[in-house]
Amino acid sequence: MSRPTSACTTILVGKRASRDGSTMIARNNDGGVLNPKKFVLVRAADQPRHYQAPFSDFALELPANPLSYTSTPAATDPVGIGSASGINRKNVAMSASETITNNGEILGVDPLVPNGIGEEDLIATVLPFIDSARAGVVRLGQLVETYGTCETNGIAFADQDEIWYLETIGGHHWAARRLPDDCYVVAPNRFNLTDFDFTDPTVLFAADLPRLISEHHLNPDVNGINLRHIFGTATVKDTHYNNPRTWFGQRYFNPEIVQDPCDFDLPFCQRPAHLIGIEDLKFVLSSHYQNTPFDPYGSGTTADKTRFRPIAMSRNQEMHILQLRPDVDASIAAIHWVAFGPNTFNMVVPFYANCRDTPASYRDTATHYAPDQAFWLSNNLALLGDAHYNLYLDSVTNFASALLAACRQLQGQADAQAPQQADPASYLTKINQDLAQCYLTHSYRLMDQLLALGKPQMKIQFMMKD
Question: So what's the pLDDT on residue 3?
């Protein structure tokens, strides 16, 4: 069995950069052409005490008394192993992971560990055992230092107050930074951390990281510490695969700033020109360089339309926005927004993390086509939508708007009523089911519209009638 490949885009939003004071961590989980995903609740009683990695010999004895958590693993994964995201019962969120790059120099000094901890192990071995975002950084950092890692990853943690972003360095090192509350991050598949002050209380790192840099003369800069310069890559691939995604996200959140899409030194974080909401995150994670010459669906030249890797693409398998809301009852604070399939043609649905189970249409994803399941329905819509993008654009836009409005109405009802329930978790489980059904209903309606618009475009036609 081989490891899955992954190529994702991460967005982080601090509480003073969001519209309602939420902390939000979001990511596209990209993979192979078709890798069915599911949305499940991993109960404490179902979690192993001895963890065995599915793709290596990595094994770990886990602490007792794990927390339950929501999870988005592959459809074939048992329990939550291989998950891409989750929120635990303490309202702590984790997204794992953003595949990043390390340069050959650091990998020569500290090689990767073939049987070290990997992407598919991260959620199951960390999220059930932490009560804050900072605690997640500390636990994962200890695991990387102790067991090593087999790959280079970026991992996001959030609670209602803080967001932390950790990147692994070589086989046994790591660095993490707390996101300033008034900032956001758009992180592609490269090393993303930049300026780093080892005396700053808002950073954490492997204990010997400063010595490693100094002893091996890894810093190319005359002044200061820039971790991207020290450990990252600056390749031709980065200029068309990675850097443009950060450029487009920062262009959307800060249209007043003019930057080069190929720039290797785009900032790690920025202060947005306007407060950021769920719709903004969905737009950026669903984007393909709209209103630029680089849009694959646009009118630019073939060279321009194929120059940059878009954020939304055919290999999107799952998108999550993990929202931790302030000033509400703990039972409704954590919202695990989920979408499946290529993101240009879907919509995220807001599921309450404090539930007793997830809806069957999201939970029981089959490994083969099943039109009544969210994963397969979303991919089916994307296949149709891609074939005649401009023809279907209005229908897809109206679908997303109508679905979000319907979900917001259900959310408003649940927010008002759940805290007064004798059993909020059971009530929210029913609301989650209603939200899932809302997605199915609106998606079937969109399918009707796409078929009606698309059939007259079929090439096998003959106008003479019997």
Answer: 52
